[in-house]
Fold:
Amino acid sequence: MQNIKNIIFDYGNVIFTLDFIKSHQAWEALGIDNASDFYSHKVQDPVFTAFERGDIDAVGFRKRIREITGKPGLTDQQIDHAWNSLLVGVAEGNHELLLGLKTKYRTFLLSNINEIHFNYIMNYLNNEFGFDGNDHLFEKLYYSHHVGKRKPEVEIFEQVLTENNLDPAETLFIDDSPQHIATAQKLGIQTYLMTAPDSIQALFKRLK
Structure:
C-alpha cells in the first residue's frame, strides 16, 4: 500500500461489527432449515441481493420471507428482528479513527445495505452516539439500495471513482469480502482484505 490519497471503506465487519451466527440462529427460528446457505458471508438467497440493490422495498422483502418460510402469519416485527440480529455495533474508537483519517485522506463509504438495516443503523447511531448518520465521517457515502448497484458489481466501483475523480492507483479499498476485493483489484485499486480479529484500528496503527 503506497502513495495512498483516497480510502474507500466497507461498513459491515470493517466499521460496524456483524455476527453471522446470530443471524443463522434467528433465521432457523423462523423456519429456515438451510440458514447458512440462505444468508451468510459468501452465499445468500436472491431476495437479499434484490433488497440490497433496492429492486424491492421492505414490504416486498418481508412478503418474500413469508413465502420462503411458508409462514404467512409472520409479523413485520418478527422478520425485522431476525434480519437485524446480524447487527452488533461499532467498536469503541472506530469513529474517532475515521474522523482523524478524514483530515489526511479523501475518505468514502461503500456499503451493501438495505432499507431495514439502514433504518436500524441510523437509529443506533443516533441513540448511542448522537450522530445523524455517517455523513460527517466521510467525504461521500454510497449505500447500495440508494444507488441501485451493489458490490461486487464493477459499476458501483466505477461510479465512486468517476464521480470523485479518483485515481485507482492512489486509492485503497478496505472490505471483508474476497469477491468485492477481486473486483476492486481488476480496476487497479489497492486493496486490503479485513479478516477477524484484525481491525481498522490495528491496521492503521501498523501503517503508521
Remarks:
- Residues 138 and 178 are 23 Å apart (CA to CA).
